[in-house]
Each structure stands twice: as C-alpha cells, then as structure tokens.
Design a protein that fits this description.
The protein is α+β, with helices and mostly antiparallel strands and 508 residues long. The chain has two domains: 169 residues, no CATH class; 325 residues, no CATH class. Helices cover 23% and strands 18% of the residues. The longest helix has 62 residues.
Amino acid sequence: MRVQTGGWRRSGHAGQHGAVIVLFAAMLMVLLGLAGLALETGQLFNRRAEVQSLTEALALAAARQLNGSSSGVNAALAAASERLTSTDGLLYQYGRARISWNPAALAFAASAQGPWLDASAAASAAQGLAYVKVDPFQLDPALTLFSTVFIRAFSAALAQVAVGAPSIAGPGAINVLPLAICALSPQAAAARGTELVQYGFRRGVSYDLMKLDPADTDGVGAHYLIDPVAPPGNAGMAQDFALDTVKPFVCSGTLAMARVTGGTLTVQGPFPLAALYAQLNSRFGQYAAPCNASTAPPDVNVKAYGVSSFFNGAAAWMNGSVPPLSTQAATTYPAAPSGTTEALWTYADPAILPANTSADKYGPLWSYARAVPFSAYVASEAEPASGYLPYSATQTSWNLLYPVNSGSAAPSLKTAVYPAGATATPYQASGGNFFAAPAAGAPGQRGRRVLNVALLSCPVAVTGISMATALAVGKFFMTVPADSSHLYGEFAGIAAEQTLAGPLEIVR
C-alpha cells in the first residue's frame, strides 16, 4: 500500500505540473494576445492620426492658393500634389510609406458646409470659393485600409478597418468691418462719361458714410451694424449686437465668418457710431478699450487729410473754391421732401450736374485713390490683382471729371505738389507734408485706414434687426478720424472677398 500510495503521489505531482504548464501556456497566449491587441490598437490610432495630419496639411496647402480664379484652383491641385510627390513629401506608416496622388481627393466650396465641387466644376465657377476638402478615401487605398491580426479575432469583418475622415480648411474670419451701407446703385459697374462708377460710388471722392441712402424718405442716412458672428444664411441673435461683443471686431476690422456674400446677413440699424467711433480711430493710433496696438495696429501713415490742413495751404495738393470747403467730404445733395423716395447722395454723384455745383461741393479728392477710366474695367473680377491704371494727375483730368456750374472753375489740382508717378497719391508718401508716422513702439500696418464695408441691396429697414443681401465689399479710406456723427471715407474700389480672407484654419 505504501508503494502504491507513493506511486499515486508521483503521478499526482506530474499531473499538477502538467496542468500548470498548460495553464501558464494559456495565460501566456492570452497575455501575448492582449499585448498584440494593445500594440495593434495603438498602431490603428496612430494611423488615424497620420491620416488626419496628412489630410489637414493637404487642405491647408491647397486652400492657400485659392484666389477666385480658375488658376487658383489649378494652383491648389498642384500644391496638394507637390506635398505628396516631392522628395520631402508627406509620408505615413511612421515615415516609411509614400502616398500616390489623386486629384479627385480635393473638393472646393464657398462655405464649409458646401455644396462641394470637383476640380473641373470649381475651375469653371471659381469666384467665391474659399474652402478645400480633402477626402483620404480618394487617395491611395493602402493609406486608409488598416489590416489587422489581433483585432480580427473579434469579428472577421474587422480584418481590415477603414481609417480616416475628410479634412476641411478655409478662412475663419474675413477682413470686413461690421458696418454695412446701401449701395447707391445695384450696378457693379457703369460709365459716367468716361469714368468708372461702381455700385454708384466714384473713386477718389470722399463720402460721409453716415449720410447716404439711395431710397431716402427722411434725409437721414441708412447704415447698419453687421452681426459679427452669424455667417450669411444664418439668422443672428439680438445679443450678438451688444457693444462689448462688437467692439473688438470694430477694432480689428474683421467678422468671424469667411464671406459676406452668398446669403443674407443679419444686420441692425442704425450703426451706433457714437458708441464705436473711438474704436474706428485705432487706425490713427488713437486707442480706446478694447483696442490696442497689438490687435488693432495703426496705419503706417496716420496723417489726417483734413480740409483745414490740406486746402489753400502749402501742404495742399488741391485748392478749394471761395467760400472754402466746409466739410470733409463731398457735400450732401439737398434731401428730397419728407415722405418722398429719392437718393440721399452727394453733389458728386448725380449723372446730371446739379444746380449750384461749385468746386467746394466735391470735397477732398484723390487722397488715397484716383478715378479710373471705364475702359479699364474688367467685368470678370472685382479688381485686377495689380489694380487699375487711373487717370493721370493733371488739371485736364479734373476739369473733365469735376465740372462746376456755379462759382469759379473746377477744383484746382496742384500738379507741382501732387505726388509724381502714374498711380501715386498723397497717402503713399513716406515723408514730407503728406506723411505722419504712428507713435514710436507701435508698428504700423499699411492699408489699415481702408475700411472694407459691405454694400447692401436696399431698401433695408433702417431700424431694428433685418436680413440683408450684400452685393459686394467696398473699400473706403478714412481721410480723417471719425467723430460721434461723421465717418468720412474716400471710395477706393471693390475688394474681392478672397483677398480679404483672414488666417486659414482647419474647420473640421
């Protein structure tokens, strides 16, 4: 019995030892499987990150090239292709694998919500396109199909996992002031004799933007505050018009949207100039909270081209008539009788010269921009990238453009003083009487005195919140600082929205 019992013990120990080995092997396999699963899951997440990083880089590279023309669309395709195919192009799989290029991966749109156009359709309708979407599933299939070893154990359907999502890049803001005024005319371009007139405005003529209304009934200008955060086609909220919300946008001259056309804007009339003129004057280095030199730099040239300083004096480039000019802009044309509908504009605007038009009725001329011949107009774009060749700076040009039927001759251009050059104007001076540098320590930004203002299709209710359509963006140069009731701007043409886009960002 002892021998037999001892045998049983040896046999029992052997059985236990074998069971431990089997259990250890099973646990090892489980641990190895878990380790493999964890490693593979990490690789899967890394692939997702690689795909996202890659599509975002392609979207940004392409979006930088869009300029409202078919050439911009073609440049966007080339830029994205170059990011993949160049010797230092984008790689994946920990920098070991290269992706083949497919132009079908790119789509274009005017808003981040679409509708999306392929490259061919986008090139045929490029105006307004500002966003690029990159679909990784249109690129090399090896990029977005991740083959698994351990994850497939849960389901055969997981043998390959689709990885990635489209990335969209475009501007998050536009350099347009949250101010809208009525277009004086719905026509994008018209001839006034030989002169180009755009949406009823004349280049080189100064306007008080608070005293314009093409459908006037009360002699009071029509002007509006734009909801700075509700993009076209989206209804804004009353709280968006709170001064604390609006002031930073007035300081920077921006709106938190990519464009102002393509849908109705939410606006509120009238524009509260008395509460916002101090922020507008940051362009002259005059600061009121929340503006500061970092977020709202002054212009490089802060010289005020006021009547008192620049007419009938040594610093003048033009002479006024007698009596001297009394306002900083073209004189408001006599308002129509109350209750009637007639344009509230200036003496410079009617096609037929109003009676009693003397030289002083035109106000300051050509401080920032000169008039442009209608023959130079290019209908296919807001303005050529290089600008228009304007009228020459001669008294003959002024006699043609600014005639009078009362008092003395047309405004007198001091050709000996006016800056020399085919397109030069006083603002472009870098020294002398026409120039003043901003305060020391405040780096200036060229063109900050140009206010990009939405031109609305009117009539629009002059009070309360309304929806309005922007026809275009007009450029108005601040000749002098604003005050509580006047905002003077010299019309300088129409801006293409693409040129006003703020920094690009990944929308999603």
